[in-house]
Amino acid sequence: MKMSAQNPEAIVYNGLLAIGSAMQPVSQALAVDCGKILALGSDADMLSLAGPDTKMIDLNGRLVVPGFIDSHIHFYEWSLKRQNLKLDDLTNLEELLDRVREDAHTKPPQEWIMGQGWNETDWTDPRMPTREMLDLAAPDHPVLLWRCDLHLAAANSAALRLADINAKTPDPPDGRIERDPAGKPTGILRELAINLVRQAVKPPDPSQVKDAFEDGIKALHRIGITGIHDIRLMADTDGASALRTFQILDQSDRLELRCWVSLSGHELDKIIALGLRTGFGNDRLRIGHVKFFADGGMGARTAWLIDPYLDAERGMPMMDMEFLAQEIEKADNAGLSVMVHAVGDRANQELINIYEKLKSGRDASGAPLPSLPHRIEHVQMIQPQDADRLRDLGVALCVTPANMVLDMNLIDTALGPSGKWTYSFRRLVDSGSPVIFSSDCPVCDPNPLLGIHAAVTRQRIDGTPDSGWWPESCVTVAEALKAYTLTPAKTHNALDIGTIAVGNRADLAVLSHDIFKMPTMQIAQSRVDMTLFDGEVVHRNF
Ligand SMILES: [Zn+2]
User: Going along 241-309, which residue ranges are E strands?
Assistant: First the structure.
């Protein structure tokens, strides 16, 4: 290992750097060596360090920020879904069938062809694909294609056969198998009938998962993401596969991403029995939090509210609050931090009650237990008096600004004026609690610049609504940037990432524009032009 001031591996100059915790851009340059930021200073000072082997990177005035950390991403689901056919850009049914035909040519027979995103209402002739059409395009492969809204899917005969769906199959509860006049399934499945086929899909084999992960990591580099908090829901299927694949990549030195992997609350006793604690791992792969659910979501009106919805009752808890309190205490005592999904204002209030009563202990060495703060996921609706209670709680708040943009209409309909208590980023930041940003991808696009845009403008990327949705809840660009970098690093005890400082890991994103100076409405149009992970250039497009 060489770490001398002379002849560093790379010098990044002629740009703006969002240095330290203030993150206000200054004209500086930096030198990178052995994965770390070796030195910071003027262009002249840094260029004087250059040796014959130094890679020189001229930024042409671009802005460098710390690499982004997405604090709530379903990486397994997203990276595997990326391997499916993308059908959102079609103009007619024939194109859809062509895509299926091409995929059938490249895949061994019997392997599943899956895709999503088709929308027949955009087509000149708005006909949906049928079982027979898909059979002709792919006679030897099971096919399942989700419509863009995910409430409907088209399957071919092979897929229906594997799912045991025939003329005699009854419709499942909350689902419909469409049939022709003779009673034979047409291949169109609505709502939960889709699950009958989905359950028949063979889980991906380890090499498919590994390929999908490597491809997904590259895609994250292209949007400046160098760290994730991966959220797992099922320990028995995707959980094991995801954690195993992260380890395989890490052990072969190919995990170019810092990952905190969460574990399912259903498995708490097993996790404790194994002796796992939050923080176990290395600087690329660590055990994160144990995930629980306090309530559901606004769309299904299952988020648990204090007052009724305009068009429904009050929603409901997903588990008994006393039981949840016991599970949290058990985890806490075992050195495991928890993250609890809480969307409605009642769910958040109850969860704060639990956290307030929790008395964390110390481990055998005298260190506080657990090693990382507990979290609340989503914090979508919270009453001001409850937000005030967050002040001294030391709990990290993970929110998803890009989801607000998708939810504006939904919340106007469900809550009307009480919508002002939702996505209260300003109030949460002002509570002094660590606020961390995420995409909840694949719910939202994982591009952090879209999240920053949403948090700063509270507008869609087309500029609607005019002056922002509940604009008093906007945050500044610096606050949004910290919620994607410094704050998640600090709350996860990763003190050598999240800021640009000498000695820190060189995980960096170079942006096409100065997002501090440009009109906020244009932030969503800026790009990530270069990403460094551990001092290596992992993405560059200039
Ligand atoms: Zn999620």
Answer: 258-264, 285-293
Query: For residue 84, how far is its CA from the centre of ligand 1 (angstroms)?
Result: 20
| Residue-wise DSSP of 186-250 | EEEEEETHHHHHHTTSPPPPHHHHHHHHHHHHHHHHTTTEEEEEE----IIIIIHHHHHHHHHHH
Distance (Å) from CA 368 to ligand 1 centroid: 28
pLDDT digits (tens, 9 = 90+) for 509-520: 999 999 999 999
- Whole-angstrom Cα distance, residue 358 to residue 301? 29
> What does pTM read for this prediction?
0.91
Quote the CA–CA distance of 452 and 442 in Å, as a whole number: 17
**Tokens representing residue 276 in the block:** 């796992």
Distance 402 CA to ligand 1 centre (A): 13
**pLDDT averaged over every residue in the chain:** 94
In tens, the pLDDT along 72-104 reads 999 999 999 999 999 989 999 999 999 999 999
| pLDDT, tens digit (0-9, with 9 covering 90-100), for 128-177 | 999 999 999 999 999 999 998 888 999 999 999 999 999 999 999 888 99
Q: Ligand 1 centroid vs 72 CA: distance in angstroms?
A: 6
What pairs with residue 436 in β-bridges? 398
306 Cβ contact list (under 8 Å, min separation 6):
314, 344, 345, 346, 349, 383
**Which three-class secondary structure string do you get for 334-363?**
CCCCEEEEECCHHHHHHHHHHHHHCCCCEC
pLDDT at 2: 43
